[in-house]
Every structure is written in structure tokens, then in C-alpha cells.
Amino acid sequence: MIEKVLKQEERISLALRSLYKTYGYQPYKMSKFEEYDLYVANKEFLVGDGVITFNDTDGKLLALKPDVTLSIIRNSADKAGKRKVYYDENVYRVSAKTKQFKEIRQVGLECIGAIDLYDEYETLTLAAGSLAAISENFVLDVSHLGVLSAVLDSVCTDKAFQRAAMGYLAEKNVHETEHLCDQFGVGADGKKTLLTLFTAYGEMNAVLDKIAPVCKGKAKAAYKKLQSLCKLLSSSNYADKIRLDFSVVNDMNYYSDVVFKGFIDGVAEGVLSGGRYDKMMARLGRNAGAIGFAVYLDLLDGFNEEKSATDVDVAVLYDAKTSLSQLTKTVEKLVKKGCSVSTQTAEGVVRAKETVDLRGCKR
Amino acid sequence: MINIALPKGRLGEKVYELFEKAGYECPSIKEKSRKLIFENEEKGVRYFWVKPSDVSIYVERGAADIGVCGKDILAEYSPEVYELLDMKTGICRLAVAAKKGFYDDGRHTLKVATKFVNCAKRYYAEKSRDIDIIHLNGSIEIAPILGLSDVIVDIVETGSTLKENDLEVIETIFPISARLIANKASFKFKTREIENLTEQVKILLDEKEL
Q1: Cβ distance A68 to A32 under 8 Å?
Q2: Residues B165, B199: one domain?
Q3: B160 and B188 assigned to the same domain
Q4: What single DSSP character describes residue B102?
Q5: Most exposed of A153, A233, A322, B5 (fewest Cβ within 10 Å)?
Q6: Who's near B164: CB < 8 A, 6+ residues apart?
């Protein structure tokens, strides 16, 4: 019965929380409000602009949380080892599509501390596991900003070029990338290097082989890190679902190394997003690394849900003449049998599999 | 099955012909009817006609896996899609036009009438020019004639409409052509099909260029 009552997002939330708990992540409950200053100082880290603000009783400007990660970073102290937490929270943001505020339920985890290769592997397998809990048809695209920024630097160090190139990479836009290279006087070799990276996506080892020749100098060290991570991931249960795709980009002022995005077949947008954000930690004055991700449950609204032809099992109709004791007995009997019941005084208000008509029954 | 959103009108018909030549034909689309959706199961394609400015919405929201729309729409609405190919058709440009002889002395806020509010704002912000945007939905050319605006930001193909109204292009903002776009999630799960179609169309376009 409980299974029937749970909404899709509640079912998924339970499955995810249980998964994170198994790997030793602790629940993290935070306040709905946060000081506005925190968000203003790190505006670009937030997914969208727009924060709902209000004054507290002492005049302090507060905001309804538009993001969870910043609060977690702020509220965790620098300690030895790693702090591993998961959360299930509502955040409030302006939707990019409707340009209006929206309440978004977000489940995710963060691992803060001296992040190593194992932590990256564990986070990525938990991200894949989260997607698997939603549907077996999923893809987790992984990119590496270390590789990307080193390759971009080797091609052209102009910031305007790099900003535009990142935009075209996110669009898999080869033709505009070519124009951009021409515009900035990037030679044939540089163009080839960039396009090799931009057009490399798919199975991990195939992509690693393809990009190996363009990962020289500084990029080589980043490439090796990615290679080690892929080697570990290749032996995980989700190896065939994890792909390399450099079109997953995030702000390089906050993120570094591995970043990723998860897609579910049948949902038009990426439902999971995450990455390593050591640079964000440094900006907040923290002496630690961090990695995490969030699953956006609002995007799964209606996904895979069977549309029921009925609202209840039985509609019991009664009127002023109906004996109330007969009505209560009828309802109790049906409920005991495991039926859902709706008492009504008019027909057609609810869609029922069966109707019991007690109208006019005095006995 | 790949769902393809085509822009209604001349551009869409031209683009369909290209898809047809690339081996993705759907004969029923040429039959005279009021139907909007056409399917060829054997070729694995389903086409539908939508308003040109709506193509990116259908693709971004996943109702269509791929679609064809102008760069102007992509620049204006910045949808979260992949831009896979420049189809080198429907070529025109987004330009600033004004009454013949107009001179911007920079002493006043420039009144700009346009359908492309975001593009115009971005363009003038880069030039640090203070503007007053007037959002119009059509007949933009009339705005400077009636004194509603100093300039207009609009699509210019041959420039004959401007000429007839005694207007002229004073700056080009960016060139426009039709682009093949894809929904990001669809691309993950129909990679091979979408790649094949893109490749076939690209071969045809390259041949045409030669």
C-alpha cells in the first residue's frame, strides 16, 4: 500500500538516500534560509540568476536557498579525513525556461576533504548508481576540465577565444569553432588539436586513444589522471554506461578536473550534474578539495509513470436518506478488504472501478 | 525512429529536399493534405512542420530529436541544444538599419526597434552604447519612418524591403543560415542514427560547395 501512495520523486529519493547511506554518507539537514551575502559573492557558481530575498526580524538580508553546495561548504570545518554528506532539499531558483521562480527538489551528495582518485571513482559510480535507480537506460557523460584547459592553452591563450570555444564545445559546434580559429589566427595544427578534442565522445578507451596525440605538455599530466580514473571505471558495474564527452563543461573558475552529467532515456534534459570543485573551495578560503553531484527530481515529474484509469477502487454514493451506520459499515468493510474508497454524494466526481450506491437506503 | 522538426515554409521545403536526397525520404510529406506529421518507418524518420521560431523549443524539450532552424533563433533564445551542422541555406544576416543618412552622434539614448531583443541588447552592451529597446513583433521597418525608433535590428536578406522604405543597413551584427540542431539527451540515446543522418547531409552540402 505504501508503495502505491509514494510519488515517483519520493520513491527515487528513498532509493538514492539508501544508496548513499550504504557508502557511509551521512544525512545533512540545513536551514531553509541563508545569508544573502554568500550567494552574491559566488553568483556565477549558481545554476541561474535570481534569489528570493527577505529581511529577517533584525533587518539582516536573508535568501531562500537557491543552492545546497555553498551552504554545505560553509558549514563544514576543515578537518583531517573526508566529510561525506548527502541531502534531500528543496531549492528556489529562477527557471531558465519560464523566467519565474521555481521550487526544485534536489537530492545529492558532497565529499569534502583531501580528494583522491578513489573518491572520484566512488562519486562517479554513485552518480551512475543514482541514474540506474531511476532507469536502466541511462548515460553518464564524463569530461575533464584539466585536459580541456591545458589543450585550450596550447592552442590559444586569449581569454575571449577560450570563452567562445567553451561555448561552441558545449554545443558540439564544429563549424563555428572553425570560424573562431580563423578569426583568432589559430593555425591548422591548433585547429586540428581543438577539433580532435571537441569531436571525441563515446566509449572511454576509444576516446582516450583518440585524444592521446593532442594531449602534450601540461595536458599530458591531466590526461594521465583521466586515464587512471577511466581504468577504474572500466571495471565498475556501469562501465558500458559511462562515456567520455568533453561537451560537458562547467565554469573553470569554480570547477577543476572531472565534471559530469547524467541523462535518462525519455527525459529531455540532463537529470544529474556534478564535478570536482576544488577552486570553489579555495575561493571560500577552504583548504580542501571537494566533489559532489545533484539529481534534479523535478525533471522526472511524470517520467515512466503509468496513467491510472481510476482514482479509487470503490465510490460509495450516499444521500441524506442513507443510514449513516450502514455507510460507515460499508466503508470499513471495503477498506478492510484492501480497497481504496471515496464516499460521494454525486456521481462522476471520482473515477472508480466499482460503485456502491447507498442512496435512499434507510436501513 | 528520429523525430525531425522542420520549419514551415520555403526553408523547410528546401531542407526536406536535402534530407530526401540524403536517403531520408518520406513521400507522404509531398501529398497535399492538412496533416502535420509524416512518418517513414522503413527509413526510421518522422517529420513534422512547426512554426520556424518554435523549432528550437520542440528540440530543446525533446518532442523532436533534431530540427532545423535559423541561427537568429538560436542566438536570440540560446536553447540548450547541440548545433551539429551549418546547412548553408536560408542565408541572410542580422543587421542594424536606419533611415538613409542617419548619423548616430552618441549624445542620446539610441532607440532600437526589434523582434530580436536579446541579440540587440548583447550587441549594444558590447559597444557600451546606451539603448532603449522597443520590442515589436512585425513590420519593424515602419518604426524609424514614423519616428518610433532611431534604428531597427532585423533580418536582412536582399535589402529590397529596406530600400523600398528608404532605409539602409548601417552595420551587420552576424551572418545567418539554417542550422541542424539536436536535443542533448536524444543525442545520447540515438547517437548512431543522428550521426549518420548528419554525415549524409554534410556529404551532400560539401558536394554542393564543390
Answers
A1: no
A2: no
A3: no
A4: -
A5: A153
A6: none
pLDDT of residue A64: 87
Identify whether residues B104 and B165 lie together within a single domain: yes
List of chain A residues whose C-beta atoms are within 8 Å of the C-beta of residue B191 = 202
**Tens digits of residue pLDDT in B9-59:** 999 999 999 999 999 999 888 887 778 888 999 889 999 999 999 999 999
pLDDT tens digits, residue range A195-246?
999 999 999 999 999 999 999 988 999 999 999 999 999 999 999 999 999 9
Q: What is the domain-level CATH number for residue B74?
A: 3.40.190.10
Amino acid letter, B124: Y
* pTM of structure: 0.89
Pairing of strands B2-7, B131-135: unpaired
Q: Say which CATH architecture domain A2-137+265-300 belongs to.
A: 2-Layer Sandwich (3.30)
CB-CB under 8 Å, A270 with B189: no
Average pLDDT of span A81-107: 86
Number of domains in chain B: 2
Nearest to A265 among B80, B81, B189 (CB): B189
Kindly give the interhelix angle for A188-198 and A174-183, rounded to the nearest 10 degrees: 150
Judged by average pLDDT, the poorest of B4-13, B62-71, B186-195, B201-210 is B201-210
- B167 and B182 in a single domain? The answer is no
**A48: confidence class by pLDDT, cuts 50, 70, 90:** low
Query: Rounded distance, CA A48 to CA A46, Å?
Result: 6
What own/partner pairs with CB < 8 Å and gap ≥ 24 does A280-284 have?
Answer: A280/A42, A280/A45, A280/A69, A280/A73, A280/A254, A280/A255, A281/A73, A281/A112, A283/A42, A283/A253, A283/A254, A284/A42, A284/A70, A284/A73, A284/A74
Q: Look up the domain containing B165 and give its range.
A: 92-175
In this structure, the answer to whether residues B77 and B152 fall within a common structural domain is no
Mean of pLDDT values over B138-155: 94
* Same domain flag for B124 and B171: yes
Same-domain pairing of B79 and B98: no
Gap between the Cα atoms of A299 and A87, Å rounded: 17
| Chain B contact residues (CB < 8 Å to A) | 60-62, 80-86, 183-189, 191
Minimal CA separation from B21 to chain A, in Å: 22
Q: Which of A129-133, B76-80, B204-208 has the lowest mean pLDDT?
A: B204-208
Q: How far is CA A280 from the centre of its chain?
A: 18
Instruction: Express each pLDDT in B170-181 by its tens digit.
Output: 999 999 999 999
The position carrying cell 434507510 is A362
* Nearest chain B residue to A170, by CA: B82
Same domain, B163 and B181: no
Strands A82-94 and A101-113: antiparallel
